[in-house]
Amino acid sequence: MKKIETELYELLQIIGPSGQEEEVIRYIRPRMEKVLEHVHLDDYGNLLGESVCGSGAGPTVLLCAHMDTVDWIVPGREVKRDGDVLTSSEGVLGADDRAGMAIVMAAVRNVRATDFSGRLKIAFTREEEVGRCGSKAMDRDWLSDVDLAIVVDRRGNRDIVTSRGQVQPFCDPAVGVFFEQAGAAAGMPDWRAVQGGISDACTFACYGINSVNLSAGYLYEHTEQERVDLRWVKETTKLILTALDLMMAGRQEERLFPDRLCQIGR
């Protein structure tokens, strides 16, 4: 997991507020091309990729994080490290959602060490911070075969967000239970399905895709006290890999994807 530390640190150096994600793309695209079979920019500038794992006969899982940060990152500020905690010398850190990007990349690099056999799709979206513009602009055809969307854009270290408050469910309750069980199987029994706020998971859920939003390891986002804990970043990566590993064990695939296409909300 050492590479995730370097990648997150380097991502935090890049200033890329909403609408100005070009430098983020220049950094992360060649790294995606090393581990994915197909990488492209869509018409809106979202950076998308996909790859087949194993036979490819299992579910299609989307991993998503957003590239933009809030627009008051101070140019020239220093990313400071104290043990496993990264902070900014001045202004916001931008771990929302560069931590999510680092987690997604680590999961992609390590997925072939699991028993997952299906398709992975990766979406690094633009302009999430100003109304989820990037995810709303994504091609619905590209998303049409996605069985499960895993968004990584939640504060803290043990939340599995399965709804936007009481207003919008993101997934069948069985999906939240499955991720809690995956946490326990990974030696982290305190992961819990909870209600949360707005993220790209709202967009995918509106399209009828079972979706969750996982903690990305940061705290106090959008403030000068923002910080990210590398231990938590690695633990979320471990949760995702464990979930992918367990996804087709026993009757899990039948329970999570009864029709091989999610029907929630359709």
Q: Can you describe what's shown?
A:
- The protein has helices at residues 2-12, 22-35, 95-110, 133-136, 140-143, 173-185, 200-206, 230-246, 252-256, and strands at residues 38-41, 47-53, 60-66, 79-82, 85-88, 118-125, 148-154, 159-164, 168-169, 192-196, 210-215, 218-219, 227-229.
- It has 266 residues and is α/β, with parallel strands linked by helices.
- The protein has one domain (2-256): Zn peptidases (Aminopeptidase, 3-Layer(aba) Sandwich), CATH 3.40.630.
- The strands form 2 sheets. Strands 1, 2, 3, 6, 7, 8, 9, 10 and 11 form a 9-stranded mixed beta sheet that branches. It has a 4-stranded antiparallel beta sheet with strand order 4-5-13-12.
- A hairpin with a 7-residue loop joins strand 12 (218-219) and strand 13 (227-229).
- The longest helix has 17 residues, at 230-246.
- Residues 260-266 have low confidence and may be disordered.
Features:
266 residues, alpha/beta, Aminopeptidase, nine-stranded mixed β-sheet, four-stranded antiparallel β-sheet, 13 strands, 34% helix, 24% strand, disordered C terminus
SSE layout and pairing:
Elements: H1 2-12, H2 22-35, E1 38-41, E2 47-53, E3 60-66, E4 79-82, E5 85-88, H3 95-110, E6 118-125, H4 133-136, H5 140-143, E7 148-154, E8 159-164, E9 168-169, H6 173-185, E10 192-196, H7 200-206, E11 210-215, E12 218-219, E13 227-229, H8 230-246, H9 252-256
Helix pairs in contact: 1-3, 3-8, 6-8
Number of strands: 13
Largest sheet: 9 strands, mixed
> Which sequence of SSEs, written as H and E, runs from N to C?
HHEEEEEHEHHEEEHEHEEEHH
CATH superfamily heading: Zn peptidases
Helix content: 25-40%
Radius of gyration using CA atoms only: 17 Å
Q: What is the SS-derived class? A: alpha/beta
Number of helices: 9
Distance between the termini: 39 Å
Uncertain stretches:
260-266
At CATH level 3, the topology is Aminopeptidase
Q: Mean pLDDT across all residues, rounded?
A: 94
Relative strand content: 15-25%
Reading off the top of the CATH hierarchy, the class is best stated as Alpha Beta
- CATH-derived architecture: 3-Layer(aba) Sandwich
Total number of domains: 1
Shape: globular
